[in-house]
Amino acid sequence: MKKLLAILLAVAMLFCFAGCGAKDTNSGADAKSDLKVGFIFLHDEQSTYDKNFMDAAKAACEQMNVEYAQKTQIPESQKCYDAAIELIETDGCDIIFADSFGHESFLIDAAKKYPDVQFCHATGTQAHTAGVANFHNAFASIYEGRYLAGVAAGLKLNEMIEKGDITAEKAKMGYVGAFTFAEVISGYTSFFLGAKSVCPTVTMDVKFTGSWYDEQKEKEAAQSLISGGCVLISQHADSMGAPTACETAGVPNVSYNGSTKAACPNTFIVSSRIDWTPYFKYMIQCVMDGKAIDADWTGTIETGSVVLTEVNETAAAEGTKEKIEEVKAKLLDGSIKVFDTANWTKEDKKLDSYQADVDTDDKFTPDTEAIKDGVFYESTHRSAPYFDVRIDGITLLDEAY
Amino acid sequence: MDNKIVKTHREPFFHVVKRDDMPWWKAWSIRAATIVIAFFLVGFLSMAVTERGFGETYEIMFSGVFGRIFDGRTTMLWKYLQEIAILLCLALALTPAFKMKFWNCGAEGQALVGGLASIICMIELGPKLPYPILILVIAVTSILAGAIWGVIPAIFKAIFNTNETLFTLMMNYIATQIIAYYVYIKGGGSNVINPVEYGNFPTVGNNKYFVNIVIVVLITVVMYIYLKYSKQGYEISVVGESQNTARYIGINVKKVIIRTMVISGALCGVAGMLLVAGTDHSININSVGGQGFTAILMSWLGQFNPFIMVVMTAIVVFLRIGVAKVADTALLNSSFSEIMVGLVILMLVGCEFFINYSIKFKHNKKEGNA
User: A76: which chain B residues are within 8 Å (Cβ-Cβ)?
Assistant: First the structure.
């Protein structure tokens, strides 16, 4: 009986403490707009991919002085639809943004249910054909950023050749990719072309992990590339696997999604990334002004969407920073085009015409001519990349994914 | 002399004694108290981390689960019921196996292959078959796929006495890899199968989850009757208590093991079908999302009683969604809700210990020195 009394007392005390919990009085007096943005993220800040979006979301909403809500760890399933509904119904959001490719179809479903709410989606491909007025895609011409990062890589290779560490023929880079998917192919090809523009003898091996985020696999892929003779590594996958493998092996690394300098002080050269802040500000501004958001929005170097982190002087070759600025200016004035067909071949032939798969269908049918006047125009027919040509000089070590 | 003997046999400070004399009401009040304490502990920890007030914390938790239900919006409530239904379906599937002391840790894989069967039918047969026949084919193949995935370890157990825990676990990995491969073929490089329009479960009114929920309610009732009142249910209990007894009274133990795992796997296949044909209309390796493992705990916490399992899953899903909302609104890492749910489950498991055992503290400490 005594014990029972003790338990009862304990529970009663809990209630008392509970009562004492100070209720925060919300000081919502500051002039915030009524607008609220809801963000849906595939993982959380432990993934460099999602962190990049989360940082931009915070920055954009602070600058535009609007409130926002977020849902993290939302898989590419009906859960994405549920999350969108929750953000609208419970949190009262007026704009919904989701950050992962596979979220798209579920988001379109939600967009049909709530025609008054604007739905924006990164990396997606269906907005220009779905016919849902309040659903929009966005991406950035990140191939330009990759190209610039490739220039930094090429300079590093040149430095190694000059020093006599490697011969010109041994200038082989390694690339850890997630899937054999246009976004990745476009990324590694532009990186390769950037390196080739300064180091003509460069070649590249690519390994795929079959996952956007798998630290162990990315690490193993980088290690196997290094042991296969790659003297510089870059990656398009979202964990710290490849950069840390490079730091351990002392192999220079060109990163993605943000600086990895803190973890890799001796090997990190530079990183390209998409800054989503301009897009977020754009979509918020559109809704504030009651204007329609573009079905496909492509950020560029000019809009501030494609950016490079600071160059790490410890690892980068001398003059990298200056060279990047020089090439960047040329990209901006149009005198350099990344996918200029004069600079690459497929099976030793220059391409004059290429049908890319721009409009989404189940069978991935090529449907749009992408080459015009000797240039492959990436991210113009839709925002998400569609360059998927396997060009010469790049060897895919596995194609399982 | 006496003194020395006492010193060499020092009694430990406490020892644990098995007890089976606790009346049911006392056991249940301990469980209820644990749940209440767990709720408040989660609330307090959330308050401490988010620096929010008491009322606000629980308000957010509630709104995360039920949404603006007082404004007549029931979407969130249905979503809550849907999540309970899926977890419950998996827990129900595991229960007959567990009752037989067959540790089926393969609900994840069995549900995945069930889902795989569904999506294959939806993609390949969808355009060719009329809707009712398509649904029937989906149901039959999903159930069969789950049953096959479940019965393989059972056959090995019955014939070669292999370890079913390891076997079923390994089968999960095989299932995951098969799905990964299928997604690779069908999803192209992007690794995403876009939702298929064929063979989707019907929506009732505007409700996408109604059919799923009704199916799981039916399974719950049938499972209760099956375990409690059927001959097969009784055989399961006997085999679980003692295989030798079962053999002595003429039960074919091998047959019961295999039959029960067919049922267990088949129900996991149903869960996979509910997820693929009834919910996502697509599949990926995370479609079941680890719920096959959470279901193991749900079955245990529910004392293998389907109706108690309903309550337990309702509580755990409430916490999972509610605390996630608390974390999201405070822009916290989502690990927070996982930690909280883990904590609550740990407390619930812990309270079972105190129901089954009592701790006897060392009595009359000073006596030995007399």
Answer: 192, 284
- Pick from B180, B192, B334: CB nearest A102: B192
Nearest CA in chain B to A10: B37
Task: Give the pLDDT confidence of B18-72 residue by residue, as tens digits.
Answer: 887 788 888 889 999 999 999 899 999 989 888 888 889 999 999 999 988 888 8
pLDDT at B364: 57
Q: What is the pLDDT of residues A203-233, one digit of tens each?
A: 999 999 888 888 899 999 999 999 999 999 9
Mean of the per-residue pLDDT values of chain A? 88
More confidently predicted of B12 and A395: A395
Residue A270 distance to chain B (closest CA, Å) = 27
Q: How confident is the model at residue A21 (pLDDT cuts 50, 70, 90)?
A: very low
Residue A114 sits at the chain B interface (C-beta within 8 Å): no
pLDDT exceeds 80 at position A297 = yes
**Which among A348, A340, A342 has a CA at the least distance from the CA of A387?**
A340
Provide, rounded to the nearest whole percent, the portion of chain B with pLDDT above 90. Answer: 67
Nearest to B284 among A45, A76, A91 (CB): A76
Buried b or exposed e, range B233-267, using 16+ CB within 10 angstroms? bebbebbbeebeebeeeebebeebbbbbbbbbbbb
Distance between CA atoms of residues B131 and B200, nearest Å: 9
Q: Which residues of A touch B189 (CB under 8 A)?
A: 179-182, 184-185, 388, 401
Q: Where are the alpha helices (DSSP H) in B276-364?
A: 291-301, 306-329, 335-356
Residue B170's pLDDT band (boundaries 50, 70, 90)?
very high
- The two tokens of residue A243 are 């950069």
Nearest partner of A273 among A315, A301, A312, A239, judged by Cα: A301
The CATH architecture one would assign to domain A36-141+277-299 is 3-Layer(aba) Sandwich (3.40)
Residues of B in contact with A109 (CB under 8 A): 195
Please tell me the pTM assigned to this model.
Answer: 0.85
Contact B172, B90 (CB under 8 A): no
Residue reference for tokens 């927070």: B336
Selecting from 3.30.200.20, 1.10.3720.10, 3.40.50.2300, 3.30.1360.180, what CATH number does the domain A143-273+308-334+385-396 have? 3.40.50.2300
- How many residues would you count in chain A? 401
Query: Residue A363 pLDDT > 90, yes or no?
Result: no
Choose the weakest-confidence range: A77-91, B153-167, B182-196. B182-196
For residue A26, pLDDT over 50 is answered with no
What integer pLDDT is reported at residue B138 of this predicted model?
97
- Residue A384's SS3 state is coil
State the pLDDT confidence band at B332, using cuts at 50, 70 and 90. confident
ipTM entry: 0.83
Mutate to test the interface with A, among B58, B70, B280, B360 (most CBs of A within 10 A): B280
Q: What percent of chain A is modeled with pLDDT above 90?
A: 68
Q: What per-residue string of b and e applies to A331-346 under the rule 16 or more CB within 10 Å gives b?
A: beeeebbbbebeebee
**CA dihedral defined by B318, B319, B324, B330, rounded to 10 degrees?**
120
Length of chain B: 370
Q: Where are the domains of chain A?
A: 36-141+277-299, 143-273+308-334+385-396
Distance CA(B333)–CA(A98), nearest Å, equals 17
**How far apart, in whole angstroms, are the C-alpha atoms of residue B248 and residue A139?**
70
Cβ within 8 Å of B, A 358-387 = 360, 362, 364
The four Cα atoms A358, A359, A363, A369 give a dihedral, to 10 degrees, of -40
Query: In terms of Cα–Cα distance, which of B330, B287, B143, B317 is closest to B219?
Result: B143
- Provide the 8-state DSSP code for B13: S
**Residue B281 to chain A, least CA–CA distance (Å):** 8
For residue A269, what are the contacts with CB-CB under 8 A and spacing of at least 6? A149, A152, A153, A156, A252, A253, A254, A255, A311, A312, A315, A316, A320
